Amino acid sequence: MDGQMSFGSTTGHIAFPGAHVETGGTLNVTVPDGRKHHTTPPLEDELKFLGTPVTATTARPLFVVPFEHNTDIIDRPDVFAKLEGLLPPIVDYQSAALWGLGGSGKTQIALEFAYRRFRETNCSVYWVHADNEATFTQDYEALARKAGLTDKFQGKELLRGVREWIEAQPSWLLIVDNADDLGIFGVGKRTATAQAPANETCLDDYIPRSPVGTILWTSRDERIVGSLVSARRGVSVGRMAADEALALFETSRNEHVAIHEKDAVSGLLAQLDYLPLAVSQAAAVLVKAQRREKKMEDFAEIRARSASST
């Protein structure tokens, strides 16, 4: 993960808030071999991949995200306004990327976007870690188990099967988090005329694209804009505003900054360049130090009482 700040509880799990899977009919669609956008066929059509039928169960929208909702997130109105402008809740294919330094808050922003979008539109939401090929594949394998594809496919066929399964959903959002190594998605490795070697895996081949989906990337690499998303579909995530950083510091410490502390805290936040991860870590260190100091005071008091009673 993008070394994110502790904005709140982020215990890892697969969450299904307000949604659950109910088995219904069988969704059968024809999967093209190419990567062109295609219209999702009706339910009675047959979905075939490499000549093997792949079925997707009709269900209530899935919410497969490895983090709990962070209700203590600090609002960053400029960033969220830009992101909502690029990815409005419409039935269309669209993509965008959050990019910036590690610790700037990209993953937390994407997480909040995922929860908001699910709440507002009730579309299916999927989260994939893209730190490297292994984490990407592991998350796709987990989705394959949900789709019932593990008995049908393995390796690249399984990745492609998951891609087509997502594309067959009536509405979906895919978060591709920590895509810092753009090379695994083919950036800088292919030319207009060169074909990728048969044994080379380009993960971009397994990113779903359909008329009704939304993809949000997060990356430290600015080159993601103009490569994996178009040149005008990037949102730079930098340091916080001073008031946002102060709010994060107070939330992380679970205590308001006292009047006599304001100058010192303001100086500290400026030294940390208002980066969310650094701010929350500094607050955590102070909380730990205060607890240790309180324990030492309590211990000294206990010793004093013990000595006076003898």
Q: What's a concise summary of this model?
A:
By secondary structure, this protein is of the alpha/beta class.
Please explain how this structure is put together.
It is a single chain. The strands form three sheets. Strands 5-7-8-9-6-10 form a six-stranded parallel sheet, sandwiched between helices. It has a two-stranded antiparallel sheet with strand order 1-4. A hairpin with a 2-residue loop joins strand 2 and strand 3 (52-53). The radius of gyration is 24 Å and the shape is elongated. Helix 3 (133-147) packs across helix 4 and helix 5 runs parallel beside helix 7. It is 35% helix and 12% strand. The longest helix is centred in the last third of the chain and has 33 residues, at 276-308. It has helices spanning 77-86, 106-121, 133-147, 155-167, 242-253, 262-271, 276-308, and strands at residues 26-27, 48-49, 52-53, 56-57, 63-64, 94-99, 124-129, 172-177, 213-219, 234-236. It contains seven helices and ten strands. It has 310 residues and is an alpha/beta fold. It has two domains: 26-236, Rossmann fold (3-Layer(aba) Sandwich); 242-308, no CATH class. The N and C termini lie far apart (56 Å).
